[in-house]
Design a protein that fits this description.
Distance between the termini: 38 Å
Strand order of the largest sheet: 6-7-8-3-9-10
Order of helices and strands: EEEHEEHEHHHEHEHEEHH
Oligomer: single chain
Radius of gyration: 19 Å
Number of strands: 10
Shape: globular
Structural class: alpha/beta
Largest sheet: 6 strands, mixed
Length: 273
């Protein structure tokens, strides 16, 4: 990929936990990754592969080590705090309860999301203008949330809350959307609804998206690019054409060839039946 057109560049990203102890773990090992504008990347890997740690590094939860660099739209953001990083990064978590405030209304939650990463005290619009914005953002979901702006978020179902979290993560127009196993705790029907809403929002907002998942079938079906991680490294990186006609077994073979190890992880979700 051309460095000039990459929206996100990760350079030599390393993360070591419990450094210098018997429990030392190299969660990320000199990761280099270029992400183009409007890429929708599905990242798959077993527990401990480094998937969520990679998202945490991008989001600013951890600083990169040993001179690692994070560049968004040619701007170095490696030294920014998680709060300041929120101008560039929106995130939806696995748990629908994270990222939304149960005891606040839908409108209040969305108002917080709109100001995410902006200077405190900034007033971007009148109450009427904000409500019109929130109504327009929620209406395409088809869940009726645009007519419940005064409802407490704690009264929503898990799927409704995750759909709201998706809208909130894109409301301030961040450069990158991070999806961290965002349908893993939902029942299959609700998960599919949220995935369909994800596709709609990503296309509507032209979001550059990185989605972490344990589900190999989901990783093959969604996005224009598939990455497999293993022991803190990227071992497989496929574009849409390369993954278009692959089955689960083909992906396992690709992993084994690239990693030099047998695929034995039962935590990866395979199709049933």
């Amino acid at each position: 990929m051309s460095e000039n057109k990459s929206l996100l560049r990760l350079k030599q990203i390393t993360k070591v936990f419990s450094k210098g102890t018997v429990d030392e773990v190299r969660a990320l090992d000199k990761i280099n990754l270029d992400v183009d504008a409007e890429d929708y990347i599905a990242i798959i890997g077993s527990n401990g592969a480094g998937k969520t740690t990679l998202l945490n590094i991008i989001a600013g939860v951890y600083p990169p080590e040993n001179g690692g660099r994070i560049i968004v739209n040619d701007k170095e953001i490696s030294g920014l705090s998680e709060y300041r990083r929120a101008r560039y990064v929106g995130r939806v978590y696995q748990d629908p309860h994270i990222g939304t405030a149960a005891k606040m209304t839908i409108e209040e939650n969305m108002a917080m999301a709109l100001l995410r990463g902006q200077p405190r005290g900034l007033r971007v619009a009148s109450d009427k203008q904000r409500r019109e914005l929130f109504h327009a953002a929620l209406a395409p979901l088809g869940l009726g949330l645009e007519n419940r702006l005064n409802a407490l978020v704690g009264t929503l179902s898990g799927g409704q809350r995750q759909a709201l979290a998706l809208v909130m993560a894109t409301l301030s127009k961040p450069a990158i959307l991070l999806l961290d196993e965002h349908v893993a705790t939902l029942d299959p029907r609700t998960a599919q609804i949220v995935l369909d809403l994800t596709e709609m929002l990503v296309k509507r907002e032209k979001m550059t998206t990185i989605m972490v998942t344990h589900n190999m079938e989901l990783a093959l079906r969604h996005g224009n690019r598939l990455i497999m991680m293993h022991k803190g490294r990227i071992v497989v990186d496929m574009n849409r054409g390369q993954k278009a006609d692959l089955a689960i077994n083909d992906l396992i073979v690709a992993f084994e060839r690239a990693s030099g190890e047998e695929f034995v992880d039962d935590n990866i979700l395979l199709p049933s039946g």
